[in-house]
Design a protein that fits this description.
The complex is a heterodimer of chains A (about 120) and B (about 525).
Chain A (H helix, E strand, L loop, with lengths): L1 E5 L5 E3 L3 E9 L6 E12 L5 E10 L4 E9 L7 E2 L3 E12 L4 E9 L8
Parallel strand pairs in A: 2-9
Antiparallel strand pairs in A: 1-3, 3-6, 4-5, 4-8, 7-8, 8-9
Chain B lengths: L1 H19 L1 H5 L4 E14 L10 E11 L2 E5 L8 E2 L2 H10 L5 E6 L7 E2 L6 H28 L9 H4 L6 H31 L3 E17 L2 E14 L2 E5 L13 H6 L5 E6 L7 E2 L13 H14 L12 E2 L6 H31 L5 H27 L4 E7 L3 E2 L3 E9 L5 E18 L2 E17 L5 E7 L8 E2 L3 E13 L5 E7 L1 E2 L6
Parallel strand pairs in B: 14-22
Antiparallel strand pairs in B: 1-2, 1-5, 2-3, 2-4, 5-6, 7-8, 7-10, 8-9, 10-11, 12-13, 13-15, 15-18, 16-17, 16-20, 19-20, 20-21
Helix pairs in contact in B: 1-4, 6-8, 9-10
Classes of the chains: A mainly beta (about 120), B alpha+beta (about 525).
C-alpha cells in the first residue's frame, strides 16, 4: 500500500509556492525504487498530454518506509477546467516493480483556485 | 489488420526490390583491390538495339587477387552503356590510362570485377518498405502489450515516462524538407538555373553525328524521345555532346524532330563560353516543368511542421507589431493551389467520363460523382477568386505595447489601416481566448476550437484609419497554454465591413502569460 499525505491536508497552492508532504509505503517485499512525481496532465475531449515537472527518486527502499518531500511549484500552467480541456496537477508516488501507485490531485493557480472560463 | 498488411506489404516490396537489385547488392560483399587503368575511351555504338543506350564507356584495367593477375572490362554490374554522352566523357576523364583506382572483385569468381558498385540511392528504395514493416511491428507490439495488460495502468505519470519516444514528427518533417528540397532542386531549381544562364550561351554551328527516336505507348497516343550526339568547335577545341534540351522531362518529341536532327545534318547549338563542354540544342522552356514546384510544397510543409515545435516564450517589453495568423496572400495562393489541384484532377476525370459517355459506357453513379466534383471545383475557384480580391482589401497593422500581456495586466493596442480606409464602414476589434484540441477517431484526426472569453476593444463606424485602445486581460481567466494536443490560445481579432468588396478579417495570435511569470 502506498499513500501520500500533504502538510495540513492542503491541496490548493499558489503558483511558485512550495508543497510539503510525505509518501508512505508498506509492501510485502522491498521494491527496487520509489518515485515521487510532480506533474500536470490534460483531460477532456482532446488527446491526453502529460508533463512531469519534477521527480524525487528513492533507490532500494525498505519494504516499509516513508519519504518526506518539498517541491517548488512552477508559475504555470494553472489548473483549468473548461468545456474541451481540463489541466490538472497531481503528485504521484509510484513503486517499481509492480507499479503500485498513490496520487493526490492539487490545484495550482495565482489564487489557489481552479480557473474556470 | 492494418499492422499485418503493413508488415506483409513491406516485406513483399522489400523482397521484390532486393530480388531485382540482387546483382547490385551482391557487389557490396565483393573485395576491394588495387586496379590500374590500361585504357579508357567513349564510343558511339554503331548497332544500337531499340531500348539500348547508344553510348559506351570502353575501359580495361588490371588487378590482382590472391597473387594472381586479372584483366577486367566491366565498369558496373549494369554494363558499360549510357544514355548521356557527357557522363561517358566525364568517366573517361576520371579513368585515364595509368590511373590507379580501386575496383571490387568477386571473391567467388575473381574474373568478375567492377570499378563501381551500386548506387547508394538503392538504400532509399529499401527505406519505404522497411518503414512500413517497422510501423506494422510497432503497432503489433503496442496491441500485444495492451492485450497483455489485464488491468489498465493506474499511474498517469507513467504514461509520460514510459520509454523515450522518438521525435517522429521531427524525423518526418526533416525527411519532407530534405526530400522535397532535393527533388525540387533536381527537377526545377537546377534546370531553371541552367535556363537562365544559358541565355548568355553562344550560338555555334554543330553537326549531328547520331540520332534515334525512341517511342513509348500511352493511353492518349505514343510519345517520343530523341537520343542525339552532335559535335562542334569552340575556341581551339572540338567537343561532343548528347544534351538535346536543358530539361530532362516535360517534353514530347515528335518524328519531325528526328527528320530535323538526322545524322549528318547541320544545326545550331548553344555553347557555354565559360565551359565549352556544356552545350544544348534546344533552350526552350516546357510548361510541364512547373510541376517541379510541387516538391517545394512538401519542403514547405516540412518546414512548417518543424517550426511549430518551437514554443514561443519570449517576453517582449517594448512595442511589438503583431503578425497575422495567415496573410491574404497566403490565403489566396493556398486556395488557388487547392482549386488548381482539385480542378486539374476533375478535368482529367471529366475527360475520361466524357469518353465513356460517348462510347455509351458511362453509368449514372459516375455521372453523379462528376457533378459533385465539378460543383466543388467551381466552389473552390470562386473561393480563390474571392481570396484574390481580398488581397486588395484594406490592411490593418496592429501594435501591442508591451508585447506580452499577463493575466491582470494591461497594454495599449494601436491599429493603422493601410489602403482604402475610407471604404471600411465599420471596424471592430476584440480579443478572444479559446480552447483548442486535437483528437483521433479511428484513422482520422479531428480539431475543435471553442471561444471561452471575448473582450471587446473598439467598435467604430467613422475615423477608422488610426486608433488606440487599452487592453486589460482579466486576472481570473486562463493564460496561454500549449501542449501537443491541447492549447489555450489568445488572439486579437479585427474585422472591417467593406462596401461591395471582401471584408477585412485579421487574426493576430498573442501570448498571455500567467501572473508574475512566463510559462
Amino acid at each position: 500500500m502506498v499513500t501520500i499525505e500533504l502538510k495540513d491536508g492542503q491541496t490548493r497552492f499558489r503558483a511558485g509556492g512550495m508543497i510539503h508532504g510525505s509518501a508512505r509505503w508498506g509492501l510485502l517485499d522491498p521494491p527496487e525504487s520509489m518515485e515521487l512525481r510532480l506533474f500536470w496532465f490534460t483531460r477532456g475531449k482532446g488527446t491526453e498530454d502529460i508533463e512531469v515537472i519534477e521527480t524525487v527518486r528513492v533507490d532500494s527502499p525498505a519494504a516499509e518506509g516513508s519519504q518526506s518531500f518539498r517541491l517548488r511549484l512552477p508559475v504555470g500552467p494553472y489548473s483549468f477546467s473548461g468545456r474541451l480541456i481540463a489541466v490538472i496537477w497531481a503528485i504521484e508516488a509510484v513503486v517499481k516493480p509492480g507499479g503500485e501507485t498513490a496520487r493526490v490531485e492539487i490545484t495550482l493557480s495565482a489564487t489557489g483556485e481552479e480557473v474556470k472560463p | 489488420m492494418l499492422c499485418f498488411l503493413a508488415i506483409s506489404g513491406g516485406a513483399l516490396t522489400l523482397g521484390m526490390v532486393a530480388y531485382s537489385y540482387r546483382a547490385t547488392l551482391n557487389t557490396f560483399r565483393w573485395t576491394a583491390a588495387e586496379c590500374t587503368i590500361l585504357s579508357s575511351e567513349g564510343r558511339l555504338v554503331s548497332q544500337v538495339r531499340r531500348h539500348e543506350a547508344p553510348f559506351a564507356f570502353d575501359v580495361a584495367y588490371r588487378y590482382s587477387y590472391e597473387s594472381k593477375p586479372y584483366t577486367g572490362q566491366r565498369y558496373r554490374v549494369g554494363g558499360n552503356r549510357f544514355w548521356d554522352w557527357d557522363h561517358v566523357r566525364s568517366l573517361v576523364e576520371t579513368h585515364p590510362a595509368g590511373a590507379e583506382l580501386s575496383c571490387f572483385v568477386n571473391p567467388e569468381e575473381p574474373v568478375e570485377a567492377v570499378l563501381r558498385r551500386g548506387s547508394l540511392w538503392l538504400v532509399l528504395g529499401l527505406f519505404a518498405p522497411v518503414a512500413f514493416m517497422a510501423a506494422g511491428m510497432v503497432g503489433l507490439r503496442r496491441i500485444w502489450l495492451w492485450a497483455g495488460d489485464s488491468v489498465a495502468p493506474t499511474s498517469i505519470s507513467e504514461r509520460a515516462t514510459g520509454g523515450r519516444r522518438l521525435p517522429v514528427r521531427f524525423i518526418i518533417c526533416g525527411l519532407l524538407v530534405l526530400g522535397g528540397g532535393g527533388v525540387f532542386a533536381q527537377l526545377f531549381a537546377g534546370p531553371m538555373f541552367d535556363l537562365i544562364s544559358s541565355r548568355s550561351w553562344e550560338e555555334v554551328p554543330c553537326t549531328i553525328e547520331y540520332s534515334r527516336l525512341r517511342s513509348q505507348q500511352h493511353e492518349d497516343g505514343p510519345s517520343y524521345r530523341l537520343d542525339v550526339l552532335y559535335s562542334y568547335s569552340h575556341g581551339r577545341g572540338s567537343f561532343r555532346s548528347s544534351r538535346h534540351r536543358l530539361f530532362k522531362v516535360g517534353y514530347r518529341d515528335s518524328p519531325i524532330l528526328a527528320e530535323r536532327y538526322h545524322a549528318g545534318a547541320g544545326a545550331i547549338c548553344y555553347v557555354n563560353p565559360d565551359n565549352p563542354r556544356q552545350a544544348v540544342l534546344d533552350r526552350s522552356f516546357p510548361k510541364l516543368i512547373l510541376l517541379g514546384l510541387i516538391p517545394l510544397g512538401f519542403c514547405a510543409a516540412g518546414l512548417v511542421g518543424l517550426s511549430r515545435g518551437h514554443r514561443a516564450t519570449a517576453h517582449k517589453t517594448g512595442s511589438v507589431r503583431l503578425k497575422q495568423r495567415t496573410t491574404s496572400y497566403g490565403r489566396f495562393f493556398g486556395t488557388l493551389l487547392i482549386a488548381s489541384a482539385w480542378n486539374g484532377l476533375t478535368v482529367a476525370f471529366l475527360r475520361s467520363f466524357y469518353t465513356s459517355w460517348q462510347q455509351g459506357e458511362a453509368d449514372w453513379m459516375s455521372g453523379f460523382f462528376m457533378v459533385v466534383f465539378t460543383l466543388a471545383g467551381i466552389g473552390a475557384l470562386l473561393l480563390a477568386g474571392y481570396s484574390f480580391f481580398a488581397m486588395f482589401s484594406p490592411k490593418v497593422s496592429i501594435t501591442l505595447t508591451p508585447g506580452t500581456l499577463s493575466l491582470g495586466g494591461s497594454a495599449t493596442l494601436a491599429w493603422k489601416v493601410s489602403g482604402n480606409a475610407a471604404a471600411i464602414r465599420r471596424l471592430k476589434t476584440w480579443i478572444e481566448g479559446a480552447e483548442e484540441i486535437e483528437y483521433t477517431r479511428g484513422t482520422e484526426t479531428h480539431h475543435e476550437r471553442r471561444v471561452f472569453r471575448r473582450i471587446e476593444l473598439a467598435d467604430r463606424q467613422s475615423d477608422v484609419s488610426l486608433g488606440t485602445t487599452s487592453v486589460r486581460i482579466p486576472a481570473d481567466t486562463m493564460h496561454s497554454f500549449a501542449s501537443k494536443h491541447n492549447k489555450i490560445t489568445w488572439r486579437v481579432r479585427v474585422t472591417g465591413e467593406v462596401r461591395r468588396w471582401p471584408d477585412v478579417d485579421e487574426e493576430c495570435p498573442i501570448h498571455v502569460a500567467p501572473r508574475g511569470g512566463v510559462w
